[in-house]
Target: Small ribosomal subunit protein uS15
Amino acid sequence: MPLLQQRKQEIISEYQVHETDTGSAEVQVAMLTERINRLSTHLRSNKKDHASRMGLMKMIGARKRLLGYIQKKDEQHYRDLIGKLGIRG
Model:
């Protein structure tokens, strides 16, 4: 279930830090969140897809590490990002 190129461009343009930014931590977190949300809906209807469940756990771990980095770097920016993405509470 890869993201379509058009959806990726929308996410990048929404969360980029500067004009040529495609790989900052904020963009990566937004991209991972989109993939996690898609995979979660897939797993609700395919309960026995254990391989995808493991991939989901890896993506959640990667997002958690990136969010920890953002939180250490700038606490207010971290709070704004999780509020905008609708994660963690």
Remarks:
- Residues 50-84 form one domain.
- The chain is about 75% helix and 0% strand.
